[in-house]
Amino acid sequence: MTDGQRGVVLVTGGSRGIGAAASIALAADGWDVGVNYRTQADEAARVVKACAEQGRRTVAVQADVTQADQLERLFDTVTAELGPIGAVINNAGVVSPAGRVAEYDAERLERVFRINAVSAFLVAGAAVRRMSTAYGGNGGVLVNISSRAAVLGSAGEYVDYAASKAAVDALTVGLANEVATEGVRVVGVRPGLIETDIHAPGRLDRLGTTPPLGRPGTAQEVAEVIAFLASDRASYMTGTSVDVSGGR
Ligand code: NAP
User: Fold this and answer.
1) 179-215, pLDDT tens digit by residue?
2) In what order do the strands lie in the sheet with 140-145?
3) Residues annotated catalytic, as ranges
4) Which of 20, 30, 133, 192 is least crowded, fewest Cβ atoms below 10 Å from its Cβ?
């Protein structure tokens, strides 16, 4: 690798919010970036342009990460366009509508667990099959985007979302131990209240000043931690998750 290049990173859900900010921060840190999106091609193109302005190679790839065949195509396309993948940011996710546990139906539960938990496992598996030395890879890093909700529980809002993110936390610990001797680090980030479009209208206005730091965080503040964890600067970190939550 030359010019301070770190290799190739794939960011799921890179078209908006935390994934978009992470893509641009990783490009600024020397990574070539595969930007995955599901529906927002224009937003993904904007992120690709911003990554290219950092002097890095970049590609946008449409894929729904809940679909195993689309996921394989996503990893294969990024590898073919940019080269072997050395880091994956497991970021795509959704929240549920506000509601109490007693009101949840199976359809709601299956949706949030499918997108946040099942897809996180599918992405992790695909990442290990490309990066682990046990599969012929060169090693790498998987950064799982969880949530402080996994610890706080989100009572009255979306306990199902919180539980789906607790599954991501367990994935981080368990998988890290599985692949620690195969050149792969697995780490997590638990954002708190971050200014993105994921929130229901009015939620940030209502809760934004409740963190001890007195404000919501920005996607950029989460992206900086993701870039650090993906880099060799975090070379002795695995099986752990970092809270980026203003003390919340
Ligand atoms: P966001 O602004 O709503 O962006 C979500 C991104 O995920 C979009 O790029 C979207 O793509 C993509 N996406 C959703 N479902 C997908 C699928 N099935 N396949 C591929 N891409 C998919 O959300 P965000 O706030 O940045 O959240 C990013 C991650 O951080 C999520 O895992 C979320 O749970 C977590 N998080 C966020 C906060 C917060 O306060 N914002 C706090 C804690 C944790 P398209 O737009 O192209 O459809």
Assistant:
1) 999 999 999 999 999 999 999 999 999 999 999 999 9
2) 58-62, 31-37, 7-11, 85-90, 140-145, 184-191, 240-244
3) 161
4) 133
- Under CATH, domain 7-192+226-240 is a member of which superfamily? NAD(P)-binding Rossmann-like Domain (3.40.50.720)
pLDDT, average across residues 107-127:
98
Ligand 1 centroid vs 47 CA: distance in angstroms? 14
Residue of the CA atom closest to atom 2 of ligand 1? 17
pLDDT value of position 5: 63
- Ligand 1 is surrounded, with C-beta below 6 A, by 12-13, 15-19, 36-40, 64-66, 91-94, 115, 145, 147, 191, 193-194, 196-198
Which residues contact residue 122 at a Cβ distance below 8 angstroms, ignoring those fewer than 6 apart? 65, 66, 68, 71
Distance CA 36, CA 14 (A): 5
Task: Kindly state the percentage of the chain with pLDDT values over 70.
Answer: 98
User: What are the extents of the domains in the chain?
Assistant: 7-192+226-240
Atom of ligand 1 nearest to the CA of 67: 18
The alpha helices in the chain, defined as continuous H runs, are 17-28, 41-52, 68-82, 106-113, 119-131, 149-152, 159-179, 203-207, 219-230
